[in-house]
Amino acid sequence: MAGAHHHGPPHDDGPAWTVRGSTQEEYPEFAAVFAEAIGMPAQELLDVERDFPSAEYDRSLVALDGERIVGTTMAYSLTLSVPGGPRRAAGITDVGVWPTHRRRGVLSALMRRQLADIRERGEKTAVLWSSEGGIYGRFGYGPAIQQFHATVQRAHAVLRPDAPRDRALTVELTDPGAVRGEIEELHRRAASLRNGQVLRKTGWWGQLLHDAERDRRGAGPLRAALVRGPDRAEGYALYRVLHKWEDGMPRGEVRAKEVVAAAPAARVALYEHLFSRDLATGTFLGNLAEDDILTTLLVNPRHLARTAFDSLWVRLVDLPGALAERSYATPLDTVLEVTDRFAPWNAGRWRLAADASGARAEATDAAPDLALDVSHLGSAYLGRGPLTALVDAGLATEHTPGAAARLDTAMHVPRAPLCDTDF
Ligand SMILES: CC(=O)SCCNC(=O)CCNC(=O)[C@H](O)C(C)(C)COP(=O)(O)OP(=O)(O)OC[C@H]1O[C@@H](n2cnc3c(N)ncnc32)[C@H](O)[C@@H]1OP(=O)(O)O
């Protein structure tokens, strides 16, 4: 058995741990290691996977100590919206290291192998939601989206009188399973329009709408509010109501998991529906984009309590490929000197040129305008990573004055990215 006295190899000392592909047969052992690492019952993982399969076993990796699994990770084959359109991307998940084996380079070994595998498959980027902010920067991932959860007390949950309201829209309150097709279609449409969104797998929808008791955390069943227009569904909210009484007074809370709308009036109808549930003193809204119209439409936005957090992290796996497959707001011709510890094929100088006909990135010997880490480009990839801030912080170096600002301008997108699917 892997012993408590085993000290394991040092981090950067060659192929430290054996890493190999895993299988469906091995999944119970895989799940046991990952579950222990994140502190949830393994059986829960197995049940979810049995009922709502989404695992891609041929993309699962394990690290071994002797025969025993001590580290896990998996990748999903995703479609990610990036500036320029939807692109294939690897969605990294199930990262866990057995607690007695942490900080001995197990994850580092898994990451090296996984990046090589992704490159071989031809996906240009990898994305993930991180459990902690301190893990993935060193592996070349950069936080690319800031989004927020919000709470608004009933007294302040009032939208401007001139907010768009459409009498032709009706709100239907129902069990989400009854309108699943419409909900999925609305999300697919919205996801294709927002950078950072991923298309949800069937298993994820099943899990989301299944409404397991453990997901309720004291609140009632999951409800769908579906906005219907004359021709088609225009938006939906998925939410629960937590009914609570204190000293005989109603102190309930509406908890919205997501609000998705194809038009502003539908979004207004959904917010006003959520704000008007009786016996609730406030509304929680999860996963809003930085520029969500709620802030704009509240009569008094000061009382919207926002908790900002990093959602999606982006990693350029094939740097020239990733830079070439997105679009740029302004013409660009610049030379980047890039460091990359975990995907050495990206390290070096790249000339990035973009105009109306498209973008190219090619290896070059020319003098660099800007020197930075691959993780910095990951942060900027979805259009909101300020490279100038990295220069100001002394983490990136400008050799040509203004190079970072010019790249920021070219990579910028007007609408804030959002990812409302945590995988
Ligand atoms: C996409 C997802 O699945 S997110 C879920 C991530 N998983 C979890 O949070 C589960 C609990 N945590 C774990 O299982 C492990 O601690 C892991 C996976 C985060 C890290 O695995 P380890 O094998 O310990 O990482 P490894 O030894 O390769 O560390 C490499 C470097 O990263 C650093 N590092 C690792 N984890 C962290 C962390 N949580 N915070 C800060 N630094 C970290 C290490 O100190 C080390 O630095 P060094 O090279 O300067 O010494």
TrEMBL record:
Keywords tagged on the record: Acyltransferase, Transferase
SUPFAM superfamilies per record: Acyl-CoA N-acyltransferases (Nat) (SSF55729), SCP-like (SSF55718)
EC number(s) recorded for this UniProt protein: 2.3.1.-
Binding site for acetyl-CoA: V95, G96, V97, R103, R104, G105, V106, L107, S108, S131, E132
A GO molecular-function descriptor: acyltransferase activity
Gene3D superfamilies: 3.40.630.30, SCP2 sterol-binding domain
Record keyword Acyltransferase present: yes
Family from the record: Belongs to the acetyltransferase Eis family.
All copies of domain N-acetyltransferase, residue ranges: 17-176
Originating species: Nocardiopsis codii
CDD domains tied to this protein: NAT_SF
Subunit structure: Homohexamer; trimer of dimers.
Region of interest called Disordered, as start-end residue ranges on this chain: 1-20
Catalytic center residues: Y136 (proton donor), F423 (proton acceptor)
Name of the protein: GNAT family N-acetyltransferase
